[in-house]
Amino acid sequence: MFNPLPLKKYQVSTTCILIILNYLLYCSSATEETCTKPLGNSVEDPSLIKGDCQSSGHTMADSKPLLGYWNIRGLGQTVRFLLAYLDVDFEEKRYELTPELTYDNWYADKEKLGLDFPNLPYLFDGPEKITETRAILKYLSRTRKPELLGKAAEIATKIDMVDNFLYDLYYIEFAGAVYGYTDELAKAFKETAAVRLGRLSTFMKENEWITGNDITYVDFFLYECLYQFKKFDANCLDKFPNLAGLITRFENLPEIKKYIGSPKFLQGPITLASAAHPL
Ligand SMILES: N[C@@H](CCC(=O)N[C@@H](CS)C(=O)NCC(=O)O)C(=O)O
């Protein structure tokens, strides 16, 4: 798994011990600000969820979906865009790194949220507790606008291909280059991106969106990847006007335009401050 705070092998056990110690310390000296009893499978007490973006009042009764993620664009931004596009009134808990650039603010919650596969981003939606970014995107599509999963089986298959193809480029090549930056990794990313963006461009043809003329959830992921890639390599889309056009088209969707102009919108940063090449 990609880890924004790369650990050398020998550091892993030390880190585990530190996490356990941190947890024990946390349990014994919880302050008013940090005191959150284990959430288990229900979120009933409004004070259990803390955060900087209207999240303090989150209750199951509100049934407002809650998105948990770092206070960055990262993988979470696609989920934010999709929620906004679907006109879902959602709350957020945006985690900050500590001043020492550790994960501790997240670790304080990680095992208490009742998540099967604890990770960021996570989404609470009524009784549902979901992690894995693309599972969240598909869940939101399935429950709010199923056509975003593709109106026909052949489109759904195309979506799956693009989704997996793109995730590798984003999570392995791109994240590897920005979090573990070296000149060689940056060069490797640019070379790989040129080839893979070329394939996506050829695949898209003159369509409005990546799998045809109907938008699907994977266009949200593609938009955010292209946005972030451009911040790393400003010229990466120069040879691919259809992909560049998708960026403009996406930003001009009325729901997206409104969201980008709203105070809730997070413009940046793209990465955690712990990245070797923060964006
Ligand atoms: N496969 C997961 C990867 C999620 C992931 O790597 N999350 C990073 C931030 S982008 C994180 O900090 N996770 C917290 C953790 O590993 O505890 C997904 O697609 O959602």
Automatic annotation (TrEMBL):
Keywords: Signal, Transferase. Residues 63-148 form the GST N-terminal domain. It comes from the Eukaryota. Residues 152-270 form the GST C-terminal domain. It catalyses: RX + glutathione = an S-substituted glutathione + a halide anion + H(+). Transmembrane segments: none annotated. Its EC number is 2.5.1.18. This is glutathione transferase. It comes from Orchesella dallaii.
